[in-house]
Structure formats: C-alpha cells, structure tokens
Design brief:
Nucleotidyltransferase, domain 5, alpha/beta, five-stranded mixed beta sheet, single chain, six-stranded mixed beta sheet, 15 strands
Length: 253
C-alpha cells in the first residue's frame, strides 16, 4: 500500500497485551482488510514497542502517516503517564521514539481519545452537538470528552472517587470478572460511578465502550442515570480507526 490511496489510513493501537494495526477506510470509518496483532513485548519499553510497530507498518507496505494510540496521557507528543506499559515511557517523545522505525510521519494520542474521535466522526456520537463523553470499561475506565465535536484531550475521569475509592477500582469491567459479579451487581457499581460523574458534568450523551459494550443489553437497562447513555458502535475497531483519522487530519496531542 502507498500514500496515494487517498481514502485509506493506517492506525496502530498499542495496548498492554497486544499491539494491533489495520488499514482504515476513512470514508466509511471501518477497517479495510484484516487486522494484524502482535503480542506486546515485555518489558514494553519504547525501544521494544517501536520494533513491533515497525514490523506491523512494514507488513502493510505503508509509507504515509501513521496514527498511534498509547495507554498514556499525551501532551505535545510526550507521554506523561504509562498504564500497562513500561514506566520508561513517562517523559518520552513518542513521535521521535517510534518515528525512527517508521518511513512516514507519526501522530500519537491517548487510546480513549482515539476511540472517542472514531465514535464522534463515524459512530454512536456522530452529529451530536453539545457535550459528549465516551467511557471505555476495561482494565480501567478510560474517558474522552468532546464539546460540539471538538476533543478536550487527556481527561482522567475514570479516577473520580466513588465512596472514597478510585472509580475504576469500583466499576471497571475487570472488577466484574475479578469479583465474579453478576451483571446486575456490576450495573449497580456503574450506576454509582455515573451518578458521581454527573455531579461534575452534564453530558448531552454518554457513549460506553470497551468489550462490555457488546453486551450492553445485559447491564445498561439496569442503570438509572440523568444523561442519555448508548453503547459504542465501533467497539474493538474504534482505537485503530480513531488513530488513523487523527493521523490523516494531523491531530497530534
């Protein structure tokens, strides 16, 4: 593939267990072909991750801009935190560290922010004015906040305290599995978290993503809430699609 394929982009989603990449149809907001996955190296240092990303990009014979997500807060291309990757990422110029292995320009952003961009452009929040909040329930709770379609980057709303406890320690999806909670028991936890969140924000729409969004019918109807809440539409493709979109539109954070 080459950079003259105007409606195509390449997104790479760097996670704690796997690094996934795919070509993206930027007109449709969908993967174009098979997603490729390589296990995240351990330790997941910048050098080790860059080597894997280089292999993924080479697989697609791609020489244009690449969008990358990272489980970290990113400002000015610098990683300020590191979740489920090596602590040596903190303070790293991510564009520089990964760009040395890639033939084209690099854009990098937080993984939840990337998923939010995809949902706002193509998915459940498309054409929704006002305040939109994406929440991803997984190992933690990620968040992406939008005002009239514009991203407010690097929010950490998963860490709002619920009863004196970090919100994601109460209501992340992994908590349901670890404590063997029923859907109803976990929904009660999520309700408490959302109720706390709604004391600080008045979203016009909340989009819930992560793997549990596939089974939203099991728990979302059980939650009482002020804001309108809907499941994400792009699900596992959202991070890759959002990364490719950010690169195509040169949206580095």
């Amino acid at each position: 593939m080459s950079s003259n394929l105007g409606s195509l982009g390449l997104g790479v989603d760097i996670g704690g267990s796997g690094i996934k990449g795919a070509l993206v149809d930027l007109d449709a907001g969908a993967l174009s072909g098979e997603r490729q996955r390589i296990d995240t190296p351990h330790p997941a240092t910048p050098e080790a991750v860059a080597e894997v990303v280089g292999r993924l990009v080479a697989h697609f014979d791609w020489t244009a801009e690449v969008g990358l997500t990272l489980p970290a807060m990113i400002t000015g291309g610098i990683a300020r935190t590191a979740a489920n990757i090596d602590p040596s990422w903190v303070g790293t110029d991510v564009r520089s560290a990964l760009g040395r292995r890639l033939p084209g320009p690099v854009e990098v952003l937080n993984d939840a922010d990337a998923a939010g961009l995809a949902e706002v452009r193509y998915g459940a929040a498309r054409d929704i004015p006002g305040v939109v909040l994406l929440l991803t329930f997984g190992t933690g709770i990620g968040s992406a906040l939008f005002v009239d379609g514009r991203l407010v980057p690097n929010t950490e709303l998963g860490h709002i305290e619920v009863g004196g406890i970090d919100g994601e320690d109460v209501a992340a999806a992994v908590v349901r599995e670890r404590e063997d909670l029923s859907w109803a028991q976990w929904a009660e936890r999520v309700e408490r978290y959302v109720e706390r969140l709604e004391r600080f924000l008045w979203p016009d729409l909340i989009v819930v993503g992560g793997g549990v969004s596939k089974r939203a019918d099991k728990w979302l109807p059980l939650i009482r809430h002020r804001s309108r809440i809907v499941p994400a539409q792009l699900q596992n493709a959202a991070g890759i699609v959002g990364a490719a979109l950010a690169a195509a539109e040169n949206r580095g954070y």
